[in-house]
Amino acid sequence: MKFTKFNVQGVAPLCQFDYLDIYAEVSDMTQPHIDTPLLGRFCGEGTDRLPNLIISTSNIIILDFYSDFDKADDGFEGRYRFINDSIYNFGQKKNLCDFVINSTEQRLGYIVSPTYPGMYPDNLHCSYTLVGKIGQRIRIKFLDFSLFQGGDYCPIDYVLIHDGGSSKGEEIGRFCGNYKDVVIYSSENYLSIIFRTQSGRIDSLNADNLEGDADFLYNRRGFNISFEFSDKFVKPAFSRTGGDHIQHIKGTACDVRISSRKRSFGTLTSPGYPSDVPPNVTCNYYLDGMRNRKVLEKVSISFKDFEVPGQMPYCYEGYLEVNLKGTLGVGAFDERFCGSLLPPNLTSEDSRMILTLDTHKSRSSRGFSSTYQFITDFGISGHSPEDGKCIFLYISRNYKEGTFNSPYYPQEYPDNTKCEYIFRPAVSERLLISFHAFDLGKTRGPCHSSDNILVDQHDLKGNYTRINTYCGTQFPGPIVGALGQEVRVVFNSRIGSRHAGFQAKFEFLNTRLRKCGENITSFGGGGLIKSPGSPEKYKSYSFCQWIIKASHRKNNILVIFEDFHVEGKEQEGAGCKNAVMRVYQDLHQPGKELCGKQENQFFLSIGEYLKLEFVTSSRALGAKGFKITWTEVHQTNPMTGSQTSSGKNGCRGFTCKITKYCIDESLKCNGLPNCGDSDRSDEEEGCGTGRVSYSLYLTILFLISTQL
Question: pLDDT tens digits for 146-189?
Fold first, then answer.
């Protein structure tokens, strides 16, 4: 039934004056209307206020027209015809819409909803069970599908498809809304289709305008689904494997998902290999490596045999596409292969790789055979010489600069993990490392008992010496390696410890590095060291070294940071990330890192040598810099130290009042601090108002006695 004209006094959906009631689910003419489901009550003007097409569930439709005593309108006009109900009956009918379809009676055909293509009624519960012979599969296709879209998960009206002969089978999918040409396959010889409808569609959308959102205005044609039983449909290809979880993706012709069980491997082939691949099929292979807080994997695949009809690079007849990013879509593939040449070995960019085999235009062919392996991926760029091990090699001829990081950064790194990063510069280059992020967890004890980073320098004897050890959340300062020498960075995490980790930049530098500094041999006196470019701000890419040697092995070198202002802060969460001064009191031990603002900080060498190293990264902005006084000192016995000229039991130069250091007499009253530890006696005792000019001080070197 279809209405061609309609004008009945009233306002839908209440229709308080005149109205037309339509009953399309009448099973018996004698059944009282109150016990018969009402399709709808209609009034107003225009056929757009009515269902587009009405089809009864039986051989009866009842129209009940009512008008009150007041106004009248044109009324309605429509057309009807009787249709054969055979299109709504298939297989063995149990009741209104419960059917069993057996392949022995009907190999292919169509299933339509009870009133298709008219508006389907409320509160239906229909089931269609398809039963094939052993060895057969079932294919269904949505030729037309239009159900009310009530939101996510289809809460009102839906079609539910199960892979099996009942609702206990594995669910393939729940469908509502509009679909066309969707194809679904059973895994075996059973398939179940359930169709459910409800009322309350207006409430489900929280409609404010009841007239504008009348229930019957929604697209509710139902469905027309074709079905076919066959033992010729392609069979999914399963791999021979070492313990992976292999799963045919329910509802597909031959799609397979292989899920890793940690560093596992196996063999993957085309359907029917080594027999011919069936034509007109599309098979997707999803290879999923592990991805969690402890393990991240990539997928590697190697082809052993390959024959897919077609000619590279177009592959019009058929092809095997490989997506290394793990996504599907038109043009989303990274590589496409056909012909008989073996594809190269391939590795995914992330934890998933997708292969798509398409034979829709091809003749028969052998297909392919391949081996796959899930390999541990630490989320670190660089060359890994050993698969599955967290070891990465960076050679200057391959990488001039780049980044490296803790495993899985910016996610938390796994516990109980060790990673090595090896850097090999050219003979004329130095390595510069600067940290952009650093969080190994707060620590109160020594670094060796915490998550840490070890930085080692390869020496000319072939051994590694420790540059420094870092832990906590304070950023390491920029690090420069020796000329042409290998540097190794080792990351260690403890059991049960996980934090944000680190990210650092590496650069192999030659001319870009601004070098300064010198080797200084003392003759008993002292001197002044200033930051590069002083009094201007220091610049980025600076690398300065001063190595000061005392005149005698029993003497020491004292440095005093008279003025020091370098960007950064020596505290947790900050650090000397862009500029650092390292003080090596012992050349065989890691240096102390300084930045920020320092006043009258002093350091005394352990032996006759002291080294200062100033490094800035590419991100350094520059600051005032520093002025550092160095002095050669001889440590006298504080109980017997004196200033006697004979040197017996005393100092031949000047003995500092507080520190008891013996310094050269000429350093007294020179305008610079030379005693250290807030000891100003060298600038106070006997100096008066006159001061030795600094220019004269720099031109004269004095010799102090090595011992009394």
Answer: 999 888 889 999 999 999 888 788 999 999 999 999 999 999 99
Inter-residue contact 478 to 615 (CB < 8 Å): yes
Please indicate, yes or no, whether residues 95 and 220 belong to a single structural domain of this protein: yes
Q: Count of CB atoms within 10 A of residue 487's CB?
A: 25
Closest CA to 124 of 163, 175, 159: 159
Q: Is residue 144 part of a domain?
A: yes
> Which range of residues forms the domain containing residue 332?
246-376
Dihedral sign from CA coordinates of 597, 600, 605, 609:
positive
**pTM: predicted TM-score of the whole model, two decimal places:** 0.68
Q: Which residue has the tokens 């309108």?
A: 73
258 contacts 351 by C-beta, under 8 angstroms = no
DSSP letter at 698 equals H
Specify the length of the chain in residues: 708
Classify 367 as helix, strand or coil.
strand
Does residue 670 sit in helix, strand or coil?
A: coil
Asked if 216 and 119 touch (Cβ cutoff 8 Å), the reply is yes
Pick the last residue of a domain from 25, 50, 79.
Answer: 79
Strand, coil or helix: 404:
strand
Local structure of residue 434 (DSSP, 8 states):
E
d(CA 678, CA 602): 9
Domain of 32, CATH number, reads: 2.60.120.290
Max Cα distance, the chain (Å): 140
DSSP-H helix ranges across 153-211? 201-204
Q: How far apart are CA 697 and CA 692, in angstroms?
A: 7
Residues 92, 210, single domain; the answer is yes
Closest CA to 599 of 557, 560, 571: 560
Read off the pLDDT of residues 535-579 as tens digits, 9 standing for 90 and up: 999 999 999 999 999 999 999 999 999 899 999 998 877 899 999
Number of other CB atoms surrounding residue 182 within 10 Å? 14
Q: Both 356 and 426 in a single domain? A: no
Pairs from 59-64 (Cβ < 8 Å, separation ≥ 24): 59/85, 60/26, 60/27, 60/29, 61/1, 61/22, 61/23, 61/24, 61/26, 62/22, 62/23, 62/26, 62/33, 62/36, 63/20, 63/21, 63/22, 63/23, 64/20, 64/21, 64/22, 64/23, 64/33
β-pairing, 240-241 vs 526-530, is unpaired
Q: Are 559 and 612 in contact (CB under 8 A)?
A: yes
201-210, 291-300, 539-548: which has the highest mean pLDDT?
A: 539-548
Number of domains in the chain: 5
